């Protein structure tokens, strides 16, 4: 898999940009602040519908513009697919795949990327939400249908939190007029919903972590050559022996996890009513990172923390590589400036054979010789080298900022449900430029019997299309226990 062409309209600092790319290594070189990261951020947005730099979409739209357009031509197995996204602050974003209007979530899986940037140091030094986001984003990259499950969980959590606040004795006096408090039966209904979808999400995270652990240990040794072993422990919000069993790696079914979550909710019902917030569920969990027997957070040096964060992303890269049978696009954003010469050389040796590697650097000499491929010079809002020789995407019309508006004037196609099985789109053969006549499964990644079971497993709405924030974390439990690590 590789990105053959990137087109931008009013994205960040770029009024417009047309960048032709090839397989192999491409390095964007320019002074800090000229827009190198904006380009790879756009690539990451095409893949994940979110930015690795900001929690909302509004900063992605160039100052003074009403919307931004990101478009890419993705080549996989010799076939090309065109994916387009329109970002409109305050409104639902829109998407098109091969000129067909879709919901944004339905283009997930067309392009897959693994991005490592200085912000990823937060995986080691940051809050639990950073590590939950890492696991969930990797889940969606591996199987795009999990985006729907995660979105459903967030909606149920918001509704349950609202009911807990309304039922809280401390807040009862604030209810308007004679509005009755929610009954215990109403809360139990939402307990069941949250436990059902939460059990699916927790099961998926634990299974993902089992696959990731050996790759992480190997990647950390390759990057750092350190004596300590990189370890991970999943710390859940379950109670007593159940929490210990999860930490010890005991295998549970989704149904067993649902029952354990329900039991924990009932045990903490009084605390939840006092606080008016959900204290049990995947939104309260953490991925504990350790070097040997010591927690990495607070004990690891800066270099060890960098190596651990990098190893997490390399492990994710190798996991997707194995699952997909081809390489996701690897993005290294301003990474080499933070590494010493030994770590630079080790990293270069690990990624040089990737199908496509995109690198940004302020100083070209920071990039090891093993990664010397195509070079792009970047000035403010302008890519100097590697610029397309034609005004538009080769084989496609120039970027049209009004195309999405015209889509609204056409009869709407029946909505596809990303949780009910693979969706197919016609693709283009790169060698001939003609349609292949063969459908391509853009939700590849394998089925899962735990996904989409029951009404709450279906796509009941598309909140995630409004901003990338719902794809990053959602789980809007902003109130935390005083002794919770989230609160520090």
Task: Furnish the topology, listing elements before pairings.
Blueprint: E1 2-11, E2 14-20, E3 24-29, H1 36-48, E4 68-76, E5 79-87, E6 94-97, E7 100-102, E8 113-116, H2 122-125, H3 128-142, H4 146-167, H5 184-224, E9 230-235, H6 240-247, H7 254-267, H8 269-275, E10 286-291, E11 294-295, H9 296-299, H10 302-324, E12 329-333, H11 341-351, E13 356-361, E14 374-379, E15 382-383, H12 403-409, E16 424-429, E17 435-441, H13 469-472
Helix pairs in contact: 3-5, 4-5, 5-7, 5-10
Q: What is the H/E order?
A: EEEHEEEEEHHHHEHHHEEHHEHEEEHEEH
- β-strand percent reads 15-25%
**What is the tally of helical segments?**
13
CATH architecture descriptor text: 3-Layer(aba) Sandwich
Mean pLDDT value: 81
Largest sheet: 8 strands, antiparallel
Radius of gyration: 23 Å
| CATH class identity | Alpha Beta
Q: Unreliable runs, pLDDT <50, ≥5 residues?
A: 386-394, 411-488
**Between the first and last Cα atoms, what is the distance in angstroms?**
41 Å
Helix fraction by DSSP (H/I, runs of at least 4): 25-40%
The CATH topology label is: Rossmann fold
Tally of structural domains: 1
Number of strands: 17
CATH superfamily: P-loop containing nucleotide triphosphate hydrolases
Shape: globular
Name the quaternary structure.
single chain
Structural class: alpha+beta
What does this molecule look like?
- Helix 5 crosses helix 7 (254-267) and helix 5 (184-224) packs across helix 10.
- The protein is 35% helix and 20% strand.
- The two termini are 41 Å apart.
- It is globular and about 65 Å long.
- The protein contains 13 helices and 17 strands.
- The chain has 488 residues and is α+β, with helices and mostly antiparallel strands.
- It has one domain (2-413, 442-487): 3-Layer(aba) Sandwich (Rossmann fold), CATH 3.40.50.300.
- It has helices spanning 36-48, 122-125, 128-142, 146-167, 184-224, 240-247, 254-267, 269-275, 296-299, 302-324, 341-351, 403-409, 469-472, and strands at residues 2-11, 14-20, 24-29, 68-76, 79-87, 94-97, 100-102, 113-116, 230-235, 286-291, 294-295, 329-333, 356-361, 374-379, 382-383, 424-429, 435-441.
- Strands 1, 2, 4, 5, 6, 7, 16 and 17 form an 8-stranded antiparallel beta sheet that branches. A 6-stranded mixed beta sheet has the order 8-12-13-3-14-15, with helices on both faces. Strands 9-10-11 form a 3-stranded antiparallel beta sheet.
